Amino acid sequence: MFKKCKFGISNLQPLHMNYPYQIKSLEQYHAAYKKSIDTPELFWNEIAETFIWQKKWDKTLDWNFKDPKVEWFKGGKLNITENCLDRHLEKNGNTPAIIWEPNDPLEHHRIITYKQLHLKVCQFAQVLINNGVQKGDRVCVYMGMIPELAIAILACARIGAIHSVIFGGFSAQSISDRLEDAKAEFIITCDGAYRGAKDIPLKAVIDDALIGNKTVKKVIVCTRTRTAVSMIKGRDVWWEDEIKKVESQGLELVTAVSMDAEDPLFILYTSGSTGKPKGVVHSTAGYMVYTNYTFVNVFQYQPNDIFFCTADIGWITGHSYIVYGPLSAGGTSLMFEGIPTFPDAGRFWDIIDKFKVNILYTAPTAIRSLMGFGLGPVKDHDLSSLKVLGTVGEPINEEAWHWYDENIGKKKCPIVDTWWQTETGGVMISNMAGITPGKPGWATYPMPGVKAILVDDKGNEITEKEDGLYRGNLCITQPWPATLRTTYGDHERCRTNYFATYENLYFTGDGALKNEDGQFRITGRVDDVLNVSGHRIGTAEVENAINMHAGVVESAVVGYPHDIKGQGIYAYVIYTGSHGQDTHGTGDMVRKDILQTVTRIIGPIAKPDKIQFVSGLPKTRSGKIMRRILRKVAEGETSNLGDTSTLLDPGVVDEIVKGML
Ligand code: WTA
């Protein structure tokens, strides 16, 4: 255990802000929903008017899903940081914007008010300008969870540079691919990051990623772990030195660059069912309006609430609900550097008591992993400040839902089960805390502005129930303000991935159930995308990495149910190499080599949990791998494997079943 430090915010100022568009009752939800679907332009106009614009928009919405083209608030001029920072200064300048809790509980936390954050963002924006960053440039951000990460992305937005944050768990190779795809010219990183008991050498990973890179001109390095780093003359500069220069120059605060509503705000890479990760592009105005609206409504944020989203800013959840949603609402966002189990499994509960957190937003994987420690780590905690709980990233099983409800929320906190995606920018289907009813395992109702339907494989809407429920592929019929605009550098890929499967529909890649009341339950991906601990990983991506290993002829990767991670990664590998085969023939050494290869190519998050060596894969005569069979075996099913008569060599199935792990 560790010593608890006192948290006092008495000298800080309470938040003065109201949200005229906050829904307060079930009736209001239904009315807002109807208005948003019948007259979306009118509906979103009223909400958008509550923001600060440098120039009002000319046209609220222009769209077709064929190209696809989605434009919101066209002609409007704004800067998102004026909405996240400047507009709060007068009344809420001394309100805490970010409360930061370090990895090590013995290190002191930091509280950054809106006034302080504004100053820091402006100073760092000047650092970017001094280093040659211009509007439209792509800036890759590879940092740990320290306030400077939020400052870095806001500073990019301040000057109109496009940030592309890469999660700290990705390898040098992954970063290199993303740098190349985004043609990034600038990198902001740290010497290292603390994560639980580990120090991660971020700058060294960046150095590896830059071998052979031709586009990156400058690397700005923020000090966190003060591990030894190699600083290359002319390319690498220290964040702190650059800030000192700005201070000594006595420069005026950087004014916010005027952006078009549709100018890109950021790129965030995410995995799909094919090929390499795609750079999902979000716009400035639509994204701002939608993340703010969903933040205020889903969580029912009230002035002065302390909102704790445990995600990493390397993922969309951190972008939308640690940075842009809470800050645009003038809220207080708690940012945590560490992990739920360090130094012990009571870490989240300590943080909640220390700061009197009101809203906790986390992933089912974290809940399941903490459940595994029993009630010991929870029991000496008060947790009475909590009002609302939330989950995101993967389906929540009912057992975890009830544990969360009983032991953390003490049965008095609504749990919002928020379904959404990197591509949707903000929450799409979720109950609204205390306003619309929740249901264990169900995301329930779509947000205003979101028209969700279930279709069959041909794209026809499902009209017949099966066992009392509609079931099908989840699609959205019309744009919402935070619709992804494109995939960076390849608009056709955006079309084929999301808008071409079914005519005039955005296809989510998820399967879902719907009940008579119009509530949805998301059942999981129906494409070749895995969801491991709430992280999206494409099976093709993992297969490509495994296949890079010398001696591997071919591989097939599928997901299987995993008690904690939700899904685990099961790899079937044809290996003909001899090097390193251990004398007992278990292949353990080769397995380790393969894991090492995946770690190098993608990152540790994509390491298979199980590797089974096989002599062949079940393929149809046309050469297509029958993943259905592989999935069943990975799930532990040995009979009822379905029709195997169309296989080229049905014999491999017996071998696979015998060798099942
Ligand atoms: C899954 C995370 C069930 C889903 C915000 C989706 C969920 C993918 C839920 C997107 C939920 C997200 N219930 N499944 N509440 N939330 N998912 O892009 O399969 O990292 O397509 O965005 O996570 O993952 P992404």
Indicate the proportion of strand residues: 15-25%
Annotated CATH topology of the domain at 114-260:
Rossmann fold
How many beta-strand segments?
A: 30
- Overall average residue pLDDT: 95
CATH class of the domain at 114-260: Alpha Beta
Low-confidence stretches: 1-10
Q: What summary fits the major beta sheet?
A: 8 strands, mixed
The dominant shape is globular
User: Which strands sit side by side, in order, in the main sheet?
Assistant: 12-11-8-6-7-14-15-23
Rg, Cα atoms, Å:
25 Å
What is the helical fraction, as a range of percent? 25-40%
Distance between the termini: 38 Å
Helical stretch count? Answer: 19
The kinds of small molecule bound in this structure are: 5'-O-[(S)-ethoxy(hydroxy)phosphoryl]adenosine
- Helix-strand category: alpha/beta
Question: Would you write up a description of this structure?
Answer:
The chain is of the alpha/beta class and 661 residues long. 31% of the residues lie in helices and 23% in strands. An eight-stranded mixed beta sheet has the order 12-11-8-6-7-14-15-23, sandwiched between helices. The protein has a seven-stranded mixed beta sheet with strand order 5-4-17-16-18-19-20, sandwiched between helices. A four-stranded antiparallel beta sheet has the order 21-22-24-25. Strand 9 and strand 10 (198-200) form a beta hairpin. The protein is globular and about 75 Å long. The protein starts with 25 loop residues before the first helix and ends with a helix. The structure holds 5'-O-[(S)-ethoxy(hydroxy)phosphoryl]adenosine. 5'-O-[(S)-ethoxy(hydroxy)phosphoryl]adenosine is lined by residues 270, 315-317, 392-395, 417-422, 443, 508-510, 522, 524-525, 531, 536.
